[in-house]
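Usage

Read records sequentially. Each one opens with the input sequence:
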Amino acid sequence: MTDEGEELISAIRNAEAGVFADEEVVAAYVHRFPYGQEVYDVLLELIADSPRTVLDAGCGLGNIACGLAQHVDRVDAVDPSPAMIRAGKASPGGNHPKLRWICATMEEASLSPPYALVVAGASLHWMDFEVVFPRFAEALSGNGLLAVVAGGIPSSGEPWLDEEWALFAEYNPHMGKKLSRPYMKVLTEDGWFTVLGQ
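and closes with the structure output:
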């Protein structure tokens, strides 16, 4: 792809991601399906190293970060939207002393590794894989893991899923092949990581 093409894709991605700075969009986030307690239990079980530090990549309102903060040594919650960060800080558990909010893109955030767990809750598709996956790898502790939490997103078995993803990709051209099929398939088939469990 040419430099001009990459700049155009970046501009489109930034414009679409800018929607998350809109106060009305942020206010609507409370209507998203909540994560069940089982999600937090599984995430906590994945932490094998000490210190028990977590990076919540693309945290949004910080639902995962807030749910884990009282059980770990520290959670760094990263999101590029100041409106999301403000709302997250004001949400229940958002002012926990073990929770550090970072307003930045995951590609540019100032991190404080090592992290025993990196969590991405329905946010990876907004990120530049070529930048964030090497960052995750460098930031993880020796036994650290990446957990991808896709709340409310069907993963397989539904007969309409391939058509739904194709439609999604058509109306989100900046995502290109990321959304031409479910992005978990993209991530594993393109070799970004190996799935250890689901």
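Summary fields computed downstream for this record:
- Confidence is low (pLDDT under 50) at residues 176-181.
- The CA atoms of residues 139 and 188 lie 20 Å apart.
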